[in-house]
Design a protein that fits this description.
270 residues, alpha/beta, L-arginine/glycine Amidinotransferase, Chain A, three-stranded mixed sheet, 15 strands, globular, DDAH-like
Length: 270
Amino acid sequence: MRTPRARHYLMCRPTYFDVVYSINPWMDPKKPVDTPLAITQWERLREVYLNLGHTVDTIEPVRGLPDMVFAANGATVVDGRALVARFRDAERIAEGPAYHDWLRDNGFPDLRTASVVNEGEGDYLLVGDLLLAGTGFRSDPRSHDEAQEFFGRPVVGLTLVDPDYYHLDTALTVLDEQTVAYYPGAFSPGSLAVLRRLFPDAVIASVQDAAVFGLNATSDGLNVVLPQNATALADQLRDRGFNPIGVDLSELLKAGGSVKCCTLELRAAG
């Protein structure tokens, strides 16, 4: 029997969401964006979390920061300690201070802004006692040592090699404290070997499900919220005893984001 655990999430309403620049292969400023639809889809995701019994806080969106909706990138929060993001791209740099101030003002005084490029839970995923840390496109590999020193937890570096999966949370999702799902084609041979060694019973996503960002998902140990088009992955999860809940975030996918990108987990001390 799988047991859900209530989570505490931070989200940012996509009030100013748009695609006006391109910093990943998904972003095309020439394609129209329906911001009201993005807001409706985001509100549905938030409603799903609330109906599952999770706590959802929101940070005020900032005009001129269209990607601030992707709250997962803002920080990594473990044991009540927050390592705030330092973004690679100039278009997103101002998001870091906004998340820093919110965390400082909302019960996370033990925080630090990363000294090198570190894009938060986009590239840092907690599995049990381990932090899986992505690099290759965004977060600097030197950020892995910094995170290990700050959190006092082992950090396992994983190298991404496909630009479509530019953050770790686009290619791997944590299902419970021992189980992950991932797309093998996103990782270097050495990193793939590490994943196979650490997680021999992992759920392996198909190229089709990875391509609709099926792995950009969240889990409370039972309920897995994921893009609704990842149907084969949902069947695999159901076979493993999870409860997949499909949502439509197609408008946010135009910027290379989906469920997990919109969701920063706030893990308290203890």
